Here is the input.
Amino acid sequence: MNTAEHKQDKTQQTVAVIGAGIIGINCALELQSLGYQVTLLDKEGIGLGCSKANAGHFASEQVFPLAESSLLWQMPKMLLDPLGPVSLSAKHFFKAIPWFVQFFNNMRPSLRAKNTLALQALNKNAIRHYTELLKAADAGHLISLQGSLLVFETSELSKVEAMHQHYQSAGIAVKLLDRAQTLALEPNLSDNINYSLYFTDVAHTIDPLALSRALADFAKSKGMTFQQAAVTGITQTDTGVTLKTDGTENTDKLTLVFDHCVVACGAWSKELLKGLDYHLPIEAERGYSLSLPINEQESALLSRPVASAERRFIITPMANTLRLAGTVEYAGLDAPANYKRAEMLKANAAFILKALPESKAEQESEQTAKEESWMGCRPSLPDSLPVICQAPNHDKIFFALGHQHLGLTQGAITGKLIGQLVTKKKTEIDLSPFCISRFN
Here is the structure.
């Protein structure tokens, strides 16, 4: 069969991608580009979940799993501070225990080393895939290749040097800068900053939501369709995959049939996979952001993302805002947002920057303040690895979920890998560490 005939054959096949965040969008775009007829489904809209107002940092330098033994002594104090960098809701405490047990287990050196190698492989070409994709979508302006800084206020030089060596040993392009060198890169940084690590090969987007929509529009231009629907169940038969939907305010309950299905609905994937008899130990690790509007004069406040090592948050310059993002909150999917966690980011930023933009929230209504604050549920697994695989017991169903803090970073490479799985081609990297079988 020649290439043209092969593509024509695939055109007859349909694929449902459940979840219109950055992961689902990339999967849908790749499969549509390969000749499948793709329907992207989401209960809300394109890019409106965790992909909407995140930090916008393509953090390919983050190759170390979050489960680190040094956290054992820090966690109790952090978890008990409701406005600290990590918070655990009292109501969610007992539900979260099994996840934390697995998280602590992944601190074992052998598992941590294995998981680090897997993250290195996944992140290695993550940004290259994005630059190629955004160029093709005529959206190259949405990515900035200026690197990022990790700054230190109180850490001793020996600790910073050790961290620098740690990243270098993992193959990360990084420079250790003193205060003068750091301020030369970012003059608006505070004199509180003593050292920084300059990650030269990472990137950021000036608008995460615009990036999601640009890629979705590119997929639509190739023939992809979007349907707003809440998928409540998946079954596979000999002939295909059947989806049951709850409908929305604008659509009725439907039963939809496709040849293949990709589950990419992040923290909301657990129940769908449970219906397929797969165990998914996923937590909704809630993150907050506060977007401070900037005017033309304030656009030079920063030129690249700056993360604080001690305060555990990040500041990213975007098109019309300075976005402060970070904190971790374990409270489940449905608990009301605690926007005090977003507001505290501004107090932290005052220690990092000499000048901050004035927030409209201080001048206008309380409603405006809430519009600037945002909360999203990161889909986190206890080993810090996503699930990217063909379902072990369902040959027509594929999983692309659980990317924790790195959904934006790993979106394009995940889409490429799903395309290779669906077409039964050799995958770009070894996907065995990412199979859901590790939990089943």
In short: Confidence is low (pLDDT under 50) at residues 1-8, 361-371. The first strand starts at residue 14 and ends at 18. The domain at 3-51+210-281+383-439 is CATH 3.50.50.60 (FAD/NAD(P)-binding domain). The chain is about 35% helix and 25% strand.
